[in-house]
Amino acid sequence: MSEKVLLVDDEKEFLDIMSERMQERGMTVKTADSADQAMAMLEKESFDAIVMDFKMPGMDGIQALKNIKTKKPELQIILLTGYATVEKTVEAMKIGATDLLEKPADLEKLAAKIKQAKAEKMLVVEKQTEDKIKDILKRFGG
Question: Name one Pfam family in it (predicted).
Answer without folding.
Answer: Response_reg
